Amino acid sequence: MELIDAEGNIKISDTRTTICIIGARQHNLKNVSLTIPKDQLVVITGPSGSGKSSLAFDTLYAEGQRKYVESLSVYARQFLDMMPKPEVDSITGLCPSISIEQKSISHNPRSTVGTVTEIYDYFRLLFARIGKVYSPVTGMCIEPQSASQMVQRILALPVDEKYVLLAPIVRGGKGEFKPTFAGLKKQGYRKVKVDDQFYDIEEVPQLKKNTMHDISVVVHRFRIPNQEDTQFLDTLTQSVEQALRLGEQYIVVEPLAPPTGPTLHLSGTMSCPVSGFSLPEIEPRLFSFNSPYGACSFCDGLGVLSFGNFEEENEQDNAVCNKCHGDRLSQAALCVKIQDVHIAQVGKWPLEELSTWINHIEPLIEEDKRVISTPIFREIKSRIQFLMDVGLGYLTLSRASGTLSGGETQRIRLASQIGSGLTGVLYVLDEPSIGLHQRDNDRLIRTLHRLRDLGNTVIVVEHDEDTIRQSDYVIDMGPGAGYLGGNLVAKGTPKEIEAHPNSLTGAYLRGDKKILVPEKLRSGRKDEQLQLVDANVNNLKNLTVSFPLGKMIGVTGVSGSGKSSLIMDTLCKGIRHLNQNRDLKDICGKISGTEWIDKMVEMDQSPIGRTPRSNVATYTGVFTLIREWFAMLPDSKTRGYTAGRFSFNVQAGRCEHCKGDGVLCIEMHFLPNVYTTCPQCLGQRYNEQTLEVRYKEKNIGDVLKMSVTEALSFFQDIASIHKHLSIIESVGLGYVQIGQGAPTLSGGEAQRVKLAKELMKRSTGKTLYILDEPTTGLHFDDVHQLLILLHRLADQGNTLIIIEHNLDVLKTLDWIIDIGPEGGQAGGYIVAEGTPQTIAECPESYTGTYLAPYLKKTY
Hints:
By secondary structure, the chain is an alpha/beta fold. The strands form 8 sheets. A 6-stranded mixed sheet has the order 5-18-19-3-20-21. The protein has a 6-stranded antiparallel sheet with strand order 10-9-11-8-12-13. It has a 6-stranded mixed sheet with strand order 26-29-30-24-31-32, with helices on both faces. Strand 22 and strand 23 form a beta hairpin. Its main location: cytoplasm. Residues 10-504, 525-852 form the ABC transporter domain. Keywords: ATP-binding, Cytoplasm, DNA damage, DNA excision, DNA repair, DNA-binding, Excision nuclease, Metal-binding, Nucleotide-binding, Repeat, Zinc, Zinc-finger. GO terms for molecular function: ATP binding; ATP hydrolysis activity; DNA binding; nuclease activity; zinc ion binding.
């Protein structure tokens, strides 16, 4: 139901079916008013920087979070003043809100997929309740048994065989043990077994004092009867109980000569009667590598011995722990098994394989343990299924959280929310399709529909065409980025957006605007190629791959197929090793052709810095030019200010209250930390004296708050600064503030900042560029502009290797390598390689199936 008239006035307030926003002005939003239908899948789209996140996260979610805190205790409400209220006149009909963003879950090496999803916690409970203990020395199953259970085991021995019941009292002990024998004789025992020989107790030879000895007492000699004998049963039971008391809960039933029957080693405790290996009561914490009770003591539960710094972004010289061999757990934890599998093995299997194993073993669980295991299996299976439904079946529970991409992290959170079963919630997601192959994207869309069908409102900031077309409602922001955006361009069903004359998104949906297929592919550099031989990192199956130089090459495949393993973990790492004169052990057999390239530039989605002090301007070097320009102003020269005065890292010029950060961090014990503007500099970062120096009525603090596009106009008369800013804008970052802190940049934005920095350098024509999903976070039109720049690099003779799923990108490339066919262990093969047309004609290629229709579009 429409609640706002043409003038933006509220007509009616039906908070049951809609969320009504009046006068949203957060960041670049220009007094936006609209209604959003509840219980639907709503996509907010538009060019990068058009205001999508400002509307979804900084307005809707932020206000929802504030409303939640308002409902808490008096103690919690004291933090409300520290949580800035979004600049909006009113929001009605708001539901409790949950944000699912692309931020990494944790960089703590102890955090894994299993711990984050809580699946590993359920496995710990499962192994503690139904796992069986096996001696690491003998491999025997160790089960504590009562005397009656032991008697039943004995009665199952071959009939008419003669046996002796022994109670071990010394195992591997040094000494003569004269008092021991004397005590046994006094108790009435007449026979003992010493070091594999039977003796009358009076005839035991003198034992060597410094030699290890095993001593057992003969408690009872018997023959298994042909038929049930009540008297024999009573006598045997009494003998077993007597042996248990004497041998500290251990007994051995051994056949007498000729030994045709088996030997029974039985224990009343969690101990091996042969080796003496013992285990206390099994608890879930035994299987926690974050607990001293269960962690490997040698590596403290990390699985590796660290010789380097975990914060280093380059090579980390960490060796696998030689005690637990990377399993993280103590020997005791690894001795507990279900169907001959210990918990560390479970953690190393891809979720799809793990799901198959669970379905196989569940019917095999003993009847008396099913009451305990059934609810645990139910939780494990449902959580694994949710993860597979969002295309993460290739992940393992032992995978470190810090190695996950933003898209993988977000989809894990999404799966967890579906598992929670909440209804009436407003979910706000930030491009969940990132990192997904088109086949896996279909699964994701089904998951979003499922979350909606539970009775929730799902708002997704997204550029993916399929997600837009399969949504219920679309909000198109724009028309441009930064100060050129912030307007509501169009809203309605996908078909209404497609037909809207002013919508840039609609123009691409209906085909008025399009990314064209090149008429001619590059021939590349004749006979020059990079070649990998026997690549076997992770799931790669000893691949030999050639990369023709002088071309734009795409590496694609379903999620988890081995793309990053091939490029980032093998090619890039291998070339770095060669440059450092290190061998290629555990990477590949050989890399040839490096003589044809003069340098390799990696542009992945890792942050450009870890603190707010690192930003777009400092990383690209533009800020140095700006500081030098401010230092040349007449007011600066009069005051004696140098370029250093305009650095927020230098005490002379910065605000000391916030140390030049412009914000103060408030720790919230029940919510994420809140950053509030510094009350002294008001977010300007500098002290009053520094801010008095102005150029065109703007001080250095004002300049840092400008978007790249605004700064481009502001510095249009200063050639050096203008040139650098124009390159940053050309990679689709015109909307980003030049002083925006590195931690606030998405992975895609960080990657494009790196690309801009490279474009500022003079090209040699022999550079190898490695890009990891450069279209992350980009609208159709931004992808178009980015491709123009990438093709410009390739036209200069450089080689670009791009890990990518975007079909509009793949159709413009010269060469494609398709990895698969599936994710995890079912991947790691080359499915197809060649031109886009060759891939499209390959029936085994999932990529080709989706790519073929794109190649049929007109030039």
